[in-house]
Design brief:
The protein is an all-alpha fold. The chain is built from twelve helices and no strands. Helix 1 packs across helix 4. The longest helix is centred in the middle third of the chain and has 18 residues. The radius of gyration is 20 Å and the shape is globular.
C-alpha cells in the first residue's frame, strides 16, 4: 500500500470523488485493490485520498454514493470540455500558472466553488471558465484548486485532546468513541475513526493516553 501521511492534506469530497472515478474505481472492491496496490498497475492509494472515505466524509453514507458523485461531476466536466470563446484578445488571457496563483489567492478549494465564483464574476482578469478544456498543461482539478487545510489535528495534538476528552467522558475503548460521536460530543478537530485516519494509531489505550 502506498503510505499515507498526515502531512499531506486530503482532497475535499468532490475532488476525491472525481479523482477516484477518473482513476477507474467503480466499487468498494476496486478501492480496496487500489489501497493494496493491485488495481490497474497503480502503485497504491494516492496520499491525498483518505484511507476510509466513508468515515472521513460525513456528507456521504456509502461508497456507491461517492462514486455516483464522481461520475456526475466528471460528466459535467466533460460537457464543458469544448473549445470556448473568450470575449477578449487571446493575448490577454492569463497563463495557466497565473490562474493557479489567482485561485490560491482567492482560496478556491472545490469545483463547485470555482463554478460559483466564475458565474458571479468575482475573479479579476481574463481567463477561461473551463480551464481543463483550454489549457494544454492542465494537471487535474486536485492540483489546479487551492489545497484545503487538514480537517483534523496532527497525531500528537490529537492524542492530547483525546486524553482530555477521555477524562471528561470516562472513555475506555472504541465503542465509547463511537458513542461519543453519535451523541455529538466528539470535538470537530478529531476524526470519527482515528484508528483508520492516523497511521500512528496502535491501540485505543495509547490513543486515550492510558499507556
Amino acid at each position: 500500500m502506498m503510505p499515507s501521511t498526515n502531512s499531506i492534506s486530503k482532497l475535499g469530497l468532490e475532488e476525491a470523488a472525481v479523482k477516484l472515478f477518473q482513476m477507474g474505481i467503480r466499487s468498494a472492491t476496486d478501492f480496496q485493490k487500489l489501497c493494496n496496490g493491485q488495481f490497474n498497475g497503480l502503485q497504491g492509494r494516492p496520499a491525498d485520498i483518505p484511507s476510509n472515505p466513508m468515515m472521513y466524509f460525513k456528507e456521504i453514507s456509502n461508497f456507491k454514493e461517492l462514486l455516483k458523485l464522481g461520475q456526475k461531476l466528471s460528466e459535467e466536466i466533460q460537457v464543458e470540455e469544448q473549445p470556448e470563446e473568450i470575449n477578449t484578445d487571446e493575448r490577454d488571457v492569463m497563463s495557466y500558472e497565473d490562474l493557479k496563483q489567482l485561485v490560491r489567492k482567492y482560496n478556491v478549494t472545490s469545483i463547485r466553488q470555482w463554478k460559483k465564483i466564475v458565474k458571479e464574476d468575482k475573479l479579476p482578469g481574463s481567463f477561461p471558465s473551463s480551464p481543463q478544456a483550454y489549457y494544454k498543461d492542465f494537471e487535474g482539478w486536485d492540483l489546479f484548486l487551492a489545497p484545503k487545510a487538514s480537517r483534523f489535528l496532527e497525531w500528537d495534538e490529537a492524542k492530547a485532546l483525546a486524553k482530555s476528552v477521555r477524562i471528561e467522558h470516562g472513555l475506555k475503548n472504541a465503542y465509547d468513541w463511537r458513542w461519543l460521536s453519535r451523541q455529538g460530543h466528539r470535538p470537530a478537530e478529531l476524526p470519527s475513526a482515528p484508528d483508520y485516519y492516523y497511521t500512528q494509531f496502535t491501540t485505543w489505550k495509547n490513543f486515550y493516553g492510558l499507556e
